[in-house]
Amino acid sequence: MKRWMKWASAMIVLLVVIGVGAKVFKARQQAGALAAAASAASAAPLALELGSADVFVARLQPLTRTLTISGGLKAVTSAVVKAKVASELKSLTVREGDSVKAGQTVGQLDTAEFDWRLRQAEQTAMSARTQLDIAKRALENNRALVAQGFISATALETAISTEAGAAASHQAAVAATELARKSRADAVLIAPISGVVSQRLAQPGERVATDAKLIEIVDLSRIELEAAVAPEDVGGVQVGQSARLSVDGLAEPASAKVVRINPSTQAGTRAVMVYLALQPQPGLRQGLFARGSIELQRRNALAVPVSAVRIDQARPYVLAIEGGKAVQRAVELGVRGEARFDGRTDAAVEIVSGAADGATLLRGATGVVRDGTPVKVATAVASAASAP
Fold it and tell me: For 69-74+221-297, CATH number?
């Protein structure tokens, strides 16, 4: 009995050892297979997945050569209401933002002083008229006496001179009266143009001098952009060229057209002022800053976004997708301008050589991609690239 138990125990230990060895062998086989798969996976390069926003198809399309401009908006017609006479400002009925019409009374100066001056001038003119009447009657009497031989011709000449002097004094008095009347009328402040009050420069009760500025009126129906253009660029600007402007405070871009070019340069900068008329639209105000571009020339060209051209090497290049890989292609650039990509206007540059029409190129937003990197393009993008 004891001998049998010894044999059974030895057999059980042998079976346990065999089972453990089989498990260890199987685990080693699985680990080797996993290591082989990992090494194979690490040896195979991963493909860079690209979406529709990462690539575009280069096509022949209209390329607009533009000139970037900026400047402030200014009303074509503006006026400043000034005090034509020195007096106290009695009333000013308008403030900033009020609309006025041409010929509208916008204020009043104190007329007490001018009323007295007008009365004085009228009394002086009346006195001169009386002296003229006396001189005329004396002249008529002297002529009758000369005809009868009672006085000499010299006395008649004296009477004629006296009458002429009285007439001149009367005319001077009448002129002084009209001047006094005009000064009184100038105390009424009249708006010279229709528009909106932009500045109120005085307050009632102040003593204002002659030609003192009281209010400023601007006509917002005609707004222009004053842009300074460099001398080397002004040669391409012509009257009638269109432009698109981005104005501070406006959500939509404004359309404009070149209407005038200053024949003289600005002192110091040598820049030439170019004036662009904006299409009327709500929200335009004098003094707003605007920036945009003038359309100088439009022609068909193989245009790509400026961001797609990489310049981190000696020559500019683009990354084209060929055979499932990103291939580096050196390009020769032409003129710069604007073109439409995916329904949006963007800065573009002409490709003279190095890329073909219909080539699928990577945008600059993809970042650094090495030459020969495998790529995987979305199905929609691949079908768009294959379409004529």
Answer: 2.40.30.170
What CATH fold (topology level) applies to the domain 111-185? Helix Hairpins (1.10.287)
Distance CA 89, CA 208 (A): 7
Domain covering 49-65+298-386: architecture: Beta Barrel (2.40)
The amino acid that residue 257 corresponds to is K
Portion of the chain with pLDDT greater than 90, in percent: 40
Q: How many angstroms separate the CA atoms of 2 and 120, rounded?
A: 160
CA distances from 36 to 27, 29, 39, 46, 331 (A): 14, 11, 5, 17, 43
Q: State pLDDT tens for residues 72-84.
A: 999 999 999 999 9
Lowest-pLDDT range of 13-17, 249-253, 316-320, 325-329: 13-17
In angstroms, the CA 191 to CA 267 distance is 35
pTM of the model: 0.62
